[in-house]
Amino acid sequence: MDVTEVTLATAAKIRGKIEPAGKIVVVDQTVYRHLKESGAIGATAPQSVADAVLEDRTMLERTIAEQSAVIDALTDELKAMETRADEAEAQRDLLQGRVLDLQAQTAPGAADAPVSHDAEATKSTPPKKARGSQKG
Asked: What confidence score (pLDDT) does residue 111 get?
């Protein structure tokens, strides 16, 4: 004999005893059918749980969509920042090359030194000034 656990929506007489609304009782299938036909059993717990789960799921999906949009925007911003950083590094390298050229031109004995316009060559350390020991 199959039994079912139900929550009473209204007071009901079960096995000769009046049970209050909200009480959870275990009944066989015959009593279950009588309770259901009389309207003593309201919405079952699984249905209300399913409704709550659907509401939570909808809210979760909305939150995920919002956060996904934020992540996409941040990813785009990161890519733009990386591009700007690369451009700034290239500009820095160019300026360093110019500084080295100017240092080479203004150094003592620079009239004899060739001027380098090669950006790769200017990335190296600046040329050292000639130092001679003067012993006499």
From this structure: 58
